[in-house]
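Appendix B. Worked example

We walk through a single record from start to finish. Start with the input: the chain for 3-hydroxyacyl-CoA dehydrogenase family protein, Pseudodonghicola flavimaris, length 325.
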Amino acid sequence: MGARALILGAGPGAVGLAQLLMRAGYAPELCEPDPDAARRLGDLLARAGVDLPLVTGTGDPEAAALAIEAMEEEAGATRQAHLQALLHRCDPAVPVLSTSLSHLPARAIGFRLAAPMQLRPLVEIAAGPIAPADQIGALFALARAMERRPVAAPVGRPSIASRLSARLAGTAEQLLMQGAIPHELDEAMVARGWDLGLFEAQDLIGLAASAAILPQSARPISSRMVAEGRLGKTAGVGWYRYPGGGGAVIDPLIEDLIREEAWFAEVPQRRWSGPEMLAHLLDALRREVSEMLADGTAASLAEVQTVCAAGLGFSGGLEVDPAEG
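Next comes the structure step. The output line below is what the pipeline stores for this chain.
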């Protein structure tokens, strides 16, 4: 039996993290404070044949060798409160992690895995203000033991992956408002070097989590989808439909929803070709890369390309002017 790792949270990200920790030799325990959520997760794990210890409550961090706040489904204030509680209850020698990189307190360490985890091996590691250096080094080794690709992330500002993901999602939503079709954009992205189209990836991650990287005003379509319960593959419908829990199937109703939102916003729509959509996406990403190189978020173009491949699933290259890198 490996060292005990307490994971506070019971969403898809927490379950995926638990399975990766098992690969690295840990004995993970999922803890869910909400009894209804814990019961639903227990049923889901049983149906999927996944054997993971599940506790209703916040568990016993005093007995853990590693404690992780992974409550992606909760509001920021709730997550912060639970993270502070873990820090208070854990021995200072025990690493306390959060799968969010925002507002890291005291000795907490950000440990965010790219999603979907089965496709994207990136792990971003960010140290809180007084996080012990030996713990940070150990977490880089842990990420490699989990067969992940660790990179250092900045503290107090968005990381490379966060900024690229937000720019990509925001530009794609703008294209939809102007008449682009989701499955056609996905097909064009895969043809250009992405491992998966943006919208199918969002369905795998879950619309509630993937949409949250943008302010609500920048995502009228995905906000409406979340409100209507089109939450992605686990709900059976998102940008695509998933009959019987199988693969993605094109859903013509999503095109009606997009047209309605464009009409409400008085945005004219037109037909877009694959090359036109890709040109807009890549130009937007190149602009973001240039800004990150200028403000120091990215140290080099090579660092950006690493994050693109391991975190966004894009190995096609951004072809930014080398002088900017």
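Two observations about the output. The first helix runs from residue 12 to 23. Strands lie at 4-8, 27-32, 54-56, 66-69, 96-98, 109-113, 122-127, 149-152, 240-241, 249-250.
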